Each structure stands twice: as C-alpha cells, then as structure tokens.
Amino acid sequence: MSTQEKTLEDVSLKEDVLKQNEIILYNDDVNTFDHVIETLMYACDHTPEQAEQCSIIVHYKGKCTVKTGVYDDLKPRCSMLLEAGLSAEII
Length: 91
Prior knowledge:
This is Adaptor protein ClpS core domain-containing protein. InterPro entries: ClpS_core, Ribosomal_bL12_C/ClpS-like. The protein is of the alpha+beta class. Helices cover about 60% and strands about 20% of the residues. It has a three-stranded antiparallel beta sheet.
C-alpha cells in the first residue's frame, strides 16, 4: 500500500515541474480581424484557421489563450503581439 502512495506523490511532483505558461490575447476596439489573424500567424506560428478561430473567440469572449509553453519561448512571442498593437499578457 505504501508503494502506491509513493508513486502518486512522484507524479504530482513531476506535474509541478512541467508547468506551462499561457499567452492570453484580449479584445480591443482598435485592431481589425485581418491584423489580429496575420499577427497570430506570424508571432505564434498559427495556421490561418487557428488564427481566425482565436480572433473570433477574442471578439466574442473578450480573451483567448493563443499559445502555451515555457516562459522563455512565450516572452518574445508576447512581445511581438504587443509591438503589433495587440493586448496580451503571459500568465
């Protein structure tokens, strides 16, 4: 019985180490759908379909997770979104 408990503890510790961050894109009244789509394709390596779906979600829900990964990969991508005039943050 104690072996089973130890295994569960090990799994929990590994999950904490592999924590993923997210780039959240927020809606605004300034940028066009085309601009958002093109920027997501460039900055986040989205396909045209992914970028379009994210832009629609952002428009109707107010925000959308557009990329997940390790912080060091997301930071330059988020900077590209911000430089393009979009509202985004890493959480």
